[in-house]
Amino acid sequence: MTTPRRALIIVDIQQQYFSGPLEIQFPAHAVSLPKIARAIDAAATAGIPVVAVQHSAGAGAPVFDPGTPAFALHPEVEQRKADSWKLLTKQYSSVYAGTDLAEWLRDREVDTVTLVGYMTNNCILASAVEAEFLGIHTEVLSDATGAVNIANDAGFADARTVHETLMALLNSNWARVATTQTWTEALASGHALSGSDLGSSAVAGAGRAALA
Question: What is the pLDDT of residue 1?
């Protein structure tokens, strides 16, 4: 795949993620949000399709209630919104589940989606995994996404560990992971991002473990 037909998917960059228990911790939203804005601007310059997704948990829900200010897109996204964008509301983690996104992409002959937004450990992961079954290639921008600290009966992982582990996991199978800078250069040149695969990642992992 030397000339990807890309679309940028802006995932859940809603006010819900900028304060409270779901506030993005790593990379901090102060770091990731400017990268997201840069990706949006690069997509506009390149003329590729853009989709803005918002998550709804339904009226009266404790989070992602569409009747509350927390549901709104962040102003950095809202002010860039164009008439050409596809606006999408989802109820599941994956941007494809229960939506018409896959069909919309196929109608435009898009074969590669670039995911930016939140959270790495939920909607980004779920969307990349489902895309494999749908036959859609996925790119994930590591500095334009973000995770939260997680603790439950199975254990604890801080946001940095969550994010960095999932970036390595995604790059081993379900996505090509890159920085926003690398992606904007690839977008401008029309080139595909480089990536890894599960076999190569496993061999490299075994080698690193042996040196530890």
Answer: 53
Give the pLDDT confidence of 159-174 residue by residue, as tens digits: 999 999 999 999 999 9
- Say which CATH number the domain at 51 has: 3.40.50.850
- Residue keyed to tokens 């989802």: 90
Q: How far is CA 15 from CA 1, 171, 210, in A?
A: 36, 28, 44
**Is 87 a member of any domain?**
yes
CA-CA distance, 101 to 78, in Å (whole number)? 20
What's the pTM? 0.96
- Asked whether residue 181 carries a pLDDT value surpassing 90, the answer given is yes
User: Measuring CA to CA, which residue among 44, 36, 21 is closest to residue 73?
Assistant: 36
What is the number of structural domains in the chain? 1
In angstroms, rounded to a whole number, what is the distance separating the alpha carbons of residues 169 and 25?
A: 19
Percent of the chain with pLDDT over 70: 100
Domain contains 1? no
Q: Which domain holds residue 198?
A: 6-211
Assess if residue 197 is contained within a domain.
yes
